[in-house]
Amino acid sequence: MVPEDRSDGPGAGEERARLQAAGTVRKGCDLPADSPHGHLQSRRARIHQQIDRELRMRTGAENLYRATSNARVRETVALELSDVNSSLQLLKEELAGLDNSGDTAQPESEGVTAPMIPLGLKETKPLDWAPPLKELICRHFGEDGASYEAEIRELEDLRQATRTPSRSKAGLELLTAYYNQLCFLEARFVTPARSLGLLFHWYDSLTGLPAQQRALAFEKGSVLFNIGALHTQIGARQNRSCPEGIGHAVESFQRAAGAFSLLRENFSQAPSPDMSPASLSMLEQLMSAQAQECVFEGLLLQAPGTAHDCLAQLRLAQEAAQVAAEYRLVHRTMAQPPIQDYVPFPWTTLVHVKAEHFRALAHYHAALGLCDGAPVAESELPVLEQVFLASAEARSPALPQEREERSKLGKAHLRRALLGQEAALQLHAVCRALRREDLLQAVLARALRRSLAKYSELDLEDDFHEATEAPDVQPKTQQRPEGRTPSFSQVKVADIFHRLGPLSVFSAKNHWRLVGPVHLSRGEGGFGFTLRGDSPVLIAAVVPGGRAAEAGLKEGDYIVSVSGQPCRWWKHAEVVAQLQGVGDGGVSLQVATPLPAAELPISGDRRPALGGLLRSQKECGQETPVPSRARPRPRPLLGWNRKANRGKTGRTLSPAPQP
After folding, report:
1. Is the CA virtual torsion 80, 83, 89, 94 positive or negative?
2. What beta strand segments (E) does 290-449 contain?
3. How many angstroms separate the CA atoms of 490 and 218, rounded?
4. pTM exceeds cut of 0.70
5. Which of 176, 193, 534, 654 has the fewest Cβ atoms within 10 Å of its own Cβ atom?
6. Angle at CA 250, nearest 5°, toward 248 and 254?
7. Measured between alpha carbons, how far is 42 from 16 in angstroms, rounded to an integer?
């Protein structure tokens, strides 16, 4: 875990020792502090603490500046604010440097591929779930909250483990399991009018600034953000010098784009910049561009012997132009407010470098196709001419058939390739953080040397012809990687608070009154009621004047315990068998009576109301519930916007014979 010296929660070292002693170390969680990830997270945690201190100092200085009218004091405070803001900027740059260093920025093997941009995980503070959950279990569910300490501890351990997920499939499954568990919590304990009352504290991934909300949706959104961020780190670590590694990288960036798209479409009013619609749209574009880059690298691996194939080289030129176009779009997005105010400068520069680099590669491959490719059939000329973009006042340029003319046009494309590669190297030299990326510099320098060598080969003889102007290459791809939404259903989890009963009835959205224990003895006509349904079993009808009617049981009551045994999850046959086995001593029943609208608690009562029983939560505890639809809130909160498709058809319940 992350060793943190915070007063609001246990240190990570103590937590690690406790988890190891209890044998509850979760799969997919990096525990050792000396592991690369543990060391990186420790440094990030220290930077977050320093940012917290600087923010508190800035808040105090701003309050003093507004409160005083003394000119000397205001001048002193203004100097203090300037120092604090400078310190914050340095801390943010250091935080951005961590996201592009260490194990998260370098591929797993040496190669000739350019580095990718991984996204750092959002950090969070420890959280004490016990007080609000115990109170709600006691007040609403009518059970002893202290008896659920094991479940609460399991939830806390799961959340603590998700703070340091491993860079692997197991780490993704860990985050997904916690996200699914949050869906269960939201369905069971949260209503549109009331939150759990917990203050969720997360740090912005891009700036390191803290953000707080009491909405469970903020916790869900932050975890979903980390799922996308972890996919970016896994994709950036792949060995892209082989087809298998490229395939994994493409899928990882697709999954990341899908996670950010899902977050952008379904959550609103985020309190931190990294989860704003503008930031998420930029991240989605960035991951799509990186996936497209991996696709181009895969095509290069498949085409080592196509140097003399004009059509193959021109298609590679179009693929490179497609990558360049996507990176140009990302760069324009990053350069616009408010994105430009908090996106790390190395990111913007790297995206700009790649846009120039791949545009140069497009011209390089076009030159290879024109200079080295064999003449093409006349019937294919119209198709090949569409590779090049026409100017505003001319039609698509004609593709020359004569070798000399093709060579001249190829040299023109090589000149544009050389200019673009030199521009990319100059941009690389401007950014101090990128200058430390030896791998990136090697990729750019190799591309420049390759173009220079080809140009020298074509320039053996002087020619006195007027220099040809090379047209732009039309961006086009045969394989566009679309974003892929995370598959939450593949990670099966059991509802931690399964003992409270099926979500279809026993959730904070519904209201009932616990009645009993009620003692019943068997009469001539049995107990005087009929049952139907499973989990929980419902009293379908009460015989007038029978034993059940005399005891106060009503039609529609749910049986929650039989002779002291909880039976909220029992099947119909199990309850009937238990009642049929009752002797002369009778049986003790406890039931939950749904409250009609007229009997709902008045405003201000902390108990939730029954707004209609939730139906069709199939196999509760084994499937992820659909997020609830958002409703207006009294203050800006992160909310789930998508209209979830809730099941409307309940289970068909057949009447049972009287026991």
Report:
1. negative
2. none
3. 23
4. yes
5. 654
6. 115
7. 14
